[in-house]
Amino acid sequence: MGSRYMTGTHRSCQQKDFITVEHYYCIDVFNDVIDCMLRELNDRFSEQTVELLILSSALGPRNSFKSFNIEDLCKLAKKFYLADFIPSDLKALEIELMYFQNDMRRLPCFKEITTLPQLCQQLVETTLVENYHLLYKLIRLVLTLLVSTATTEQTFSCMRIIKNRLQSTIADEFLDDFMILHIEREFANSIDNAEIIEEFKISKPCRVVG
């Protein structure tokens, strides 16, 4: 790895700089890959989305709530979930978070928690949700973030697949029907086609092509 990196036909006149093989792969190639990944991430996630994810991470219970940050959580509720919290709730949430910060370090029930679903479940099982109902509400809102994002991505992905395969000749109403079946395919696979045919025959006089 410490030998000189040679380009082209390895002739000395073609070599611009004296760099080692290690330097080429660790600096030139590695940096190019990182730059490419950063560009893709920046194109993929807006500044607002990144801020939302960063603020949401302040709820993370990993490593004994190491990321827990009251200021970030209040900002999260105020900036992204203002429709879910009235002004008095925001002040009450800040007070709840201060009390919770003491409880999460003091109570044994929070020691082994590593995920938000576990935290949400623990608040319910210990009835602490009665004391921290606004925190519980914020946790549930954050938990729906990943689900809603994944569902949206899945929907657009399905739409592209269906549109491409049908060469964009499908009407919007049929597109909606196909997308529902494709997105909810686990449920769709459990449907008995024979029952659908029988229901169709009963609903109105028609001709069923076998």
Structure commentary:
The chain has one domain (21-190). The chain has helices spanning 21-44, 47-56, 62-65, 70-80, 87-106, 116-125, 133-165, 172-183, 185-189, 193-203. Helix content is 67%, strand content 0%. The chain has 210 residues and is mostly helical. The protein contains 10 helices and no strands. 9% of the residues are buried. Residues 130-180 form the HAT C-terminal dimerisation domain. InterPro entries: AtLOH3-like (IPR055298), HATC_C_dom (IPR008906). Pfam families: Dimer_Tnp_hAT (PF05699). GO terms for molecular function: protein dimerization activity.
Question: Descriptors for this entry?
Answer:
210 residues, single chain, flat, 0% strand, mainly alpha, 67% helix
Short recap of the structure:
Residues 130-180 form the HAT C-terminal dimerisation domain. The chain is an all-alpha fold and 210 residues long.
Shape: flat
Number of strands: 0
* Low-confidence segments: none
Order of helices and strands: HHHHHHHHHH
How many whole angstroms does the radius of gyration measure? 27 Å
What profile does the largest beta sheet have? Answer: none
β-strand percent reads under 5%
Structural class: mainly alpha
What fraction, in percent, of the residue positions are helical?
A: 55-70%
Distance between the termini: 70 Å
Number of domains: 1
- Whole-number average pLDDT? 78
Total number of helices? 10
InterPro entries: AtLOH3-like, HATC_C_dom
Domain HAT C-terminal dimerisation: 130-180
GO molecular function, one term: protein dimerization activity
